[in-house]
Specification:
The chain is mainly beta. About 15% of the residues lie in helices and about 60% in strands. An 8-stranded antiparallel β-barrel has the order 1-2-3-4-5-6-7-8. It is globular, with a radius of gyration of 18 Å. The N terminus is likely disordered.
């Protein structure tokens, strides 16, 4: 009976635990994520200007900003969804997916979808995040379906 009670208490704590609001992480200290798009590794930048935790689902974050490839600038809106978190004391890793939709402004507009990995290292002396890395791997697909390119972005 005690084991069952202990199990129910642990289950309820884990099930109803509130995810801390890490919406500022996605803002990347007001810096753009940089990386590549396509087979020729063309430079791409993605800047998140607004990030907000969903009040109904604390694992989901609404974001908006813009992308730049060559001289093509496109605003986007979308979301990041946390699917898993691993903590090993000094290092924490957050896994998830992202889905971003650019403004439909013609042929070079589309959606960005993929997976992200957010890795942070904890400094025990200062009790703050010592370093962090965010990697976004996925694809960009034009709205007309003609173009589909792999993307790789990270904070720098």
């Amino acid at each position: 009976m005690k084991k069952l009670l202990l199990f129910l208490v642990l289950f309820s704590v884990l099930t109803f635990a509130q995810m801390p609001d890490i919406s500022n992480v996605w803002l990347n200290n007001s810096k753009a994520y940089t990386g590549t798009i396509g087979t020729k590794d063309q430079e791409m930048k993605l800047k998140i200007e607004i990030s907000e935790q969903n009040r109904k689902n604390d694992q989901e974050y609404f974001v908006s900003g813009y992308t730049v490839v060559d001289k093509t600038y496109a605003k986007f809106e979308g979301k990041f969804i946390i699917t898993q978190y691993k903590d090993s004391g000094k290092k924490g890793v957050v896994y998830g997916t992202y889905d971003l939709a650019e403004e439909n402004k013609g042929r070079h507009s589309g959606t960005l979808k993929g997976k992200f990995v957010y890795t942070l290292r904890w400094d025990r002396e200062t009790e703050k995040i010592g370093s962090q890395e965010i990697v976004l791997d996925g694809s960009w697909k034009s709205y007309d379906g003609i173009m589909n390119f792999k993307t790789h972005l990270q904070n720098r």
